[in-house]
Structure formats: structure tokens, C-alpha cells
Design brief:
alpha+beta; 3 helices; 27% strand
């Protein structure tokens, strides 16, 4: 029992760190893929303070704590590629989700890299595409 409580504390700490670097956008509908154009690499947009990257979203919830178990599972598989972030941090997501909701997903600098990550994660993707990340460290 003590081990389960310790694991939950680690998951909560990881989620809080991930949420702390973000601020709130994604789809609950069928899987969609969008490309904002440009090169296939992650690069800062001059003067905008943003980065374009490929993301795949698995889940969206109003409260990130509702995704704790899924977050721990995905984190164990993808490590630093995980995203737990407010929807509003991403430009290019479908606009039907509340900006104050949180998404659980993965990010990569290219479509090929994203596909490699997704090959190791057995989860349904509700959105996949190239977005502009507005919340940076």
C-alpha cells in the first residue's frame, strides 16, 4: 500500500511540474490531423515566442488530476515526450474544447518522430497534427 501511495505522489509531482510550465486547447472528437505548414522540424518562430511541433492528443479533461493514472502510464512509455498542458497553450488545435481544459499527449519535432513515439504507445489518438506551442519554459 505504501508503494502505491508513493507512486501517486510521484505522478502528482510530475503533473504539477508539467502543468506549472503551461497555461490552457484540443479535440474530443474523432482523430484529426492538421499541418500548419513549413518545415518538419521544431524551430522558434521569429518574434512570436512559440515553437512549431507535432503532437498527438490522447485525452482532454477539465482537471489534470483526473488524468493521473493515464499520465503515469504514458510517462512510463515516452518519458520527456509527454505533454500535460492547458489547451490554450496550443495554436492549431480544433477550437471546440474549452481553453481552460488540459490535454494529455505526446510531442515530437517531426511527423516521423511522432509516429515512432506513437508506435510504442497503445492508445487511441483524438487529435494529431502540427501546432504552434505558445507556452514555453
Amino acid at each position: 500500500m505504501t508503494r502505491a501511495i508513493g507512486w501517486r505522489a510521484v505522478v502528482a509531482a510530475v503533473m504539477m511540474m508539467l502543468v506549472a510550465v503551461a497555461a490552457s486547447g484540443c479535440s474530443k472528437g474523432a482523430s484529426e490531423t492538421f499541418d500548419l505548414g513549413g518545415s518538419d522540424t521544431s524551430s522558434p518562430d521569429a518574434g512570436t515566442g512559440s515553437v512549431q511541433e507535432w503532437i498527438a492528443v490522447f485525452r482532454i479533461e477539465d482537471d489534470p488530476h483526473d488524468m493521473s493514472e493515464d499520465t503515469a502510464d504514458v510517462l512510463a512509455l515516452v518519458g520527456g515526450a509527454i505533454i500535460v498542458s492547458p489547451v490554450a497553450c496550443f495554436e492549431g488545435l480544433p477550437s471546440d474544447d474549452p481553453l481552460d481544459a488540459y490535454l494529455l499527449g505526446v510531442a515530437a519535432p517531426s511527423k516521423d518522430a511522432l509516429d515512432e513515439i506513437l508506435a510504442g504507445v497503445d492508445r487511441a489518438v483524438i487529435f494529431e497534427g502540427r501546432v504552434r506551442t505558445m507556452c514555453l519554459d
